[in-house]
């Protein structure tokens, strides 16, 4: 990508899109294209077609998606598969029709089977049943991956899919019903500490910014305590406690969204579809490639941590004195999900991450957030 290339970041206000946009700006790219959902509804074919026709992007990062945690994935199953398929179909097809030079599509590591061998390799895709709770979302992402792959094979496009591990960072979603595990843990622990220290001004400020089930900072104290209790935040005595879903036994890998963005820009600048095919496809005795399968790229840190240890790390970072309780009546999800990133390393990018340091930085931003994009 040149500094004056027309680059479209779809989903520029989300966790992934905002990180990619920041990296592009830091590196001096001057012709960045983006539009929020009020200006451009990517579920509308007509609006998507008009946007591409008018702006003529050369490079596209497809970071727009409906995302959420275990609860929202389980209860909004139809919305997750329908909305993600609509956006993907519209954007990927318009990239082809309007001659986009390269598309990068971040999917999700939840596309891999529930009981995958660890660490998970790209070739493990579709080798077993998916985790039930996020199956519709995973199916949509697999469809997007295969759509990119098929446009490459049929039309010679350069559409690359990457599989990020669990992400966190600036502009994360902290909705306790819809967020992923790390931001949900961070917010619950923060709210519990505010309750523990009788910091009602800080607690009300948090709820004003992110109301929970219609309860804001302006609500009566009794309503606030009631809604916090529903989400496992209590103060039974001098110290507060939080109750978390499951057993804490599953292991997860976590990556800062800015590190993902750095990897995505590396791939966009230095890797194309044919590089991946030549380097990683199986060949016959004559050296010919007859089938192209799984030409996507895992992006992660190669390290994981138990949810139990993560919760206690966050407790230390936030400064909560109270206890963490576990409710095993709720599902754990996949027992382990760590990505094999050897393909990514061979393509020239290696992560450098410190989980505790990164969480401290994100919590500092959460506690005193900067203005949104």
UniProtKB/TrEMBL annotation:
Record-linked InterPro entries: Epimerase_deHydtase, GDP_fucose/colitose_synth, NAD(P)-bd_dom_sf
Per its record, the protein catalyses: GDP-beta-L-fucose + NADP(+) = GDP-4-dehydro-alpha-D-rhamnose + NADPH + H(+)
The protein in question is named GDP-L-fucose synthase
What are the protein's UniProt keywords? Isomerase, Multifunctional enzyme, NADP, Oxidoreductase
Site entry (Important for catalytic activity), positions: 108, 110
HAMAP family from the UniProt entry: GDP_fucose_synth (MF_00956)
The cross-references to Gene3D superfamilies, in alphabetical order and at most eight, read: NAD(P)-binding Rossmann-like Domain, UDP-galactose 4-epimerase, domain 1
Provide the NAD-dependent epimerase/dehydratase domain boundaries.
7-198, 235-273
| Top-level division of the source organism's lineage | Bacteria
One Pfam short name: Epimerase
Function as written in the Swiss-Prot or TrEMBL entry: Catalyzes the two-step NADP-dependent conversion of GDP-4-dehydro-6-deoxy-D-mannose to GDP-fucose, involving an epimerase and a reductase reaction.
Q: What is its EC number?
A: 1.1.1.271
Please provide, alphabetically and separated by semicolons, the GO molecular function terms listed in this UniProt record.
GDP-L-fucose synthase activity; isomerase activity; NADP+ binding
Q: Name one GO biological process term.
A: 'de novo' GDP-L-fucose biosynthetic process
Per its UniProt record, what CDD domains does this chain match? GDP_FS_SDR_e
Q: In which pathway does it act?
A: Nucleotide-sugar biosynthesis; GDP-L-fucose biosynthesis via de novo pathway; GDP-L-fucose from GDP-alpha-D-mannose: step 2/2
**Family listed:** Belongs to the NAD(P)-dependent epimerase/dehydratase family. Fucose synthase subfamily.
- Catalytic center residues: 137
The UniProt record gives the binding positions of NADP(+) as 11-17, 141, 164-167, 180
* EC category name: oxidoreductase
Q: Where does substrate bind?
A: 188, 245, 252, 332
């Amino acid at each position: 990508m040149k500094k004056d290339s027309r680059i479209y970041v779809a989903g520029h206000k989300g966790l992934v899109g905002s990180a990619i946009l920041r990296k592009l700006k830091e590196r001096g790219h001057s012709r960045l294209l983006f539009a929020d959902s009020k200006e451009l509804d990517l579920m509308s074919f007509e609006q998507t077609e008009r946007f591409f026709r008018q702006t003529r992007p050369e490079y596209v990062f497809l970071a727009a998606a409906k995302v959420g945690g275990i609860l929202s994935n389980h209860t909004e199953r139809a919305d997750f598969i329908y909305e993600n398929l609509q956006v993907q179909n519209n954007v990927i097809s318009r990239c082809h029709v309007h001659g986009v030079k390269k598309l990068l599509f971040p999917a999700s590591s939840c596309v891999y089977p529930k009981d995958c061998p660890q660490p998970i390799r790209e070739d493990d895709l579709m080798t077993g049943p998916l985790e039930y709770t996020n199956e519709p979302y995973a199916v949509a992402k697999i469809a997007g991956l295969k759509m990119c792959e098929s446009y490459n094979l049929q039309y010679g496009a350069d559409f690359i899919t990457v599989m990020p591990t669990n992400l966190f960072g600036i502009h994360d979603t902290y909705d306790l019903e819809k967020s992923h595990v790390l931001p949900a843990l961070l917010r619950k622990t923060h709210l519990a500490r505010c309750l523990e220290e009788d910091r009602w001004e800080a607690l009300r400020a948090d709820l004003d910014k992110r109301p929970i089930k219609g309860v804001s900072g302006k609500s009566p104290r009794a309503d606030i305590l009631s809604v916090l209790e529903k989400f496992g935040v209590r103060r039974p005595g001098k110290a507060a406690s939080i109750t978390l879903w499951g057993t804490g036994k599953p292991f997860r890998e976590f990556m800062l969204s800015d590190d993902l963005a750095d990897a995505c820009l590396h791939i966009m600048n230095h890797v194309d579809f044919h590089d991946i095919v030549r380097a990683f496809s199986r060949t016959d005795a004559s050296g010919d490639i007859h089938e192209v399968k799984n030409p996507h790229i895992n992006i992660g840190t190669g390290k994981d941590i138990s949810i139990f240890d993560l919760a206690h790390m966050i407790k230390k970072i936030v400064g909560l004195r109270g206890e963490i309780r576990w409710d095993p009546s709720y599902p754990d999800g996949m027992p382990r999900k760590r990505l094999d990133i050897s393909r990514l390393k061979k393509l020239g990018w290696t992560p450098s991450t410190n989980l505790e340091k990164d969480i401290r930085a994100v919590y500092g931003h959460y506690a005193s957030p900067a203005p949104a994009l």
